[in-house]
């Protein structure tokens, strides 16, 4: 079980701050995490390559995965 952390604002966890600051980690309507289930795809080099909204179809996300394995 994980504990609750902040993902937005001054108290946001450093990992979430970093992911949102990356060129491919920026949101379309600002960088704030708007809702649960925002997902980030990170490649083998540790770079954010894509950000998915909670509304993105998991099938679409799954199709992107082999490109970064």
TrEMBL record:
It catalyses: a hydroperoxy polyunsaturated fatty acid + 2 glutathione = a hydroxy polyunsaturated fatty acid + glutathione disulfide + H2O; (13S)-hydroperoxy-(9Z,11E)-octadecadienoate + 2 glutathione = (13S)-hydroxy-(9Z,11E)-octadecadienoate + glutathione disulfide + H2O. It is an enzyme of class 1 (oxidoreductase). InterPro entries: Glutathione_peroxidase, Thioredoxin-like_sf. Signal peptide: none annotated. It comes from the Eukaryota. Monomer. Has a tendency to form higher mass oligomers. Interacts with FUNDC1; this interaction promotes GPX4 recruitment into mitochondria through TOM/TIM complex where it is degraded by mitophagy. Belongs to the glutathione peroxidase family. This is phospholipid-hydroperoxide glutathione peroxidase. It comes from Aquarana catesbeiana.
């Amino acid at each position: 079980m994980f504990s609750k952390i902040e993902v937005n604002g001054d108290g946001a966890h450093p990992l979430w701050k970093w992911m949102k600051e990356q060129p491919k980690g920026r949101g379309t309507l600002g960088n704030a995490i708007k809702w649960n289930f925002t997902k980030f795809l990170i490649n083998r080099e540790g770079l954010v390559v894509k950000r998915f909204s909670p509304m993105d179809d998991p099938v679409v996300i799954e199709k992107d995965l082999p490109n970064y394995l």
